[in-house]
Design brief:
By secondary structure, the protein is α+β, with helices and mostly antiparallel strands. It has 2 domains: 7-93, SP0561-like; 101-203, Sandwich (Hypothetical Protein Aq_1857, Chain: A), CATH 2.60.300. 34% of the residues lie in helices and 26% in strands. The protein is built from 6 helices and 10 strands; from the N terminus they run ββααααβαββββαβββ. The strands form 3 sheets. Strands 6-7-4-5-10 form a 5-stranded mixed sheet. Helix 1 crosses helix 2 (32-40) and helix 2 packs antiparallel against helix 4 (67-93). The longest helix has 27 residues, at 67-93.
């Protein structure tokens, strides 16, 4: 099967391959990623009003390209379209992983406090609960085991437990331990919070 008549079957959809007979302007509109392959060879016909009426082959021959070079260029253009489609499909199929970041310093402090409370080896439980001055607040404690339905994350050698609902509201959040002039303690930077109160323990 020649490049001219080839078709691609991608994810169950029949996609017409780029051909050397394709109009340059149509190509630019439908497949800008393929146009970059032309540009790399010094072909900028898609920017010229007159030449944009030509086919890919006519434009390429106008720049002195051989038939063999044109066939190779068309092949690479189709590969560029396939690659873009494959990346787009992968992005749709691959769910965004939910995660909570616990910094190394915060994990070290948690282990230190757990040992001081006689709970060495316990995990760290963090939950989002209704209440607080802004609508929701963070609940943090030590727990020796996961509960039914818990999500368990391993952070710097320590288990972190939370419910699925809490993880949804904490996705991408960072748990840090800060030392400051006004005291020390754990601080949560939550990108899902629309607003936070001054105490830093409540959000909306």
């Amino acid at each position: 099967m020649s490049v001219k008549t080839a078709t691609r079957v991608l994810e169950g959809n029949m996609t017409q391959a780029i051909t050397k007979d394709m109009n340059i302007q149509d190509l630019a509109n439908k497949h800008p990623e393929a146009v970059m392959v032309m540009a790399e060879r010094g072909l900028h016909c898609f920017g010229c009003h007159g030449a944009s009426m030509d086919s890919v082959e006519q434009g390429a021959k106008g720049h002195g390209m051989s038939e063999e070079d044109i066939e190779q260029m068309v092949k690479e253009m189709n590969e560029a379209v396939e690659l873009k489609h494959a990346k787009k499909t992968e992005a749709v199929k691959t769910p965004i992983a939910s995660d909570v970041i616990v910094t190394e310093k915060a994990a070290a402090k948690l282990k230190e406090f757990a040992k001081a409370e006689g709970k060495e080896g316990y995990g760290f439980r963090i939950e989002v609960v209704p209440g607080g001055c802004s609508g929701y607040s963070y609940s943090m404690d030590f727990d020796n085991a996961a509960k039914d339905g818990d999500i368990v994350l391993m952070k710097h050698g320590m288990n972190v437990f939370m419910s699925k609902d809490s993880l949804d509201m904490l996705n991408g959040a960072t748990v840090e331990y800060v030392d400051g002039l006004h005291g020390s303690g754990f601080k949560i930077e939550n990108p899902n919070a629309k607003s936070s109160c001054g105490c830093g323990k409540s959000f909306a």
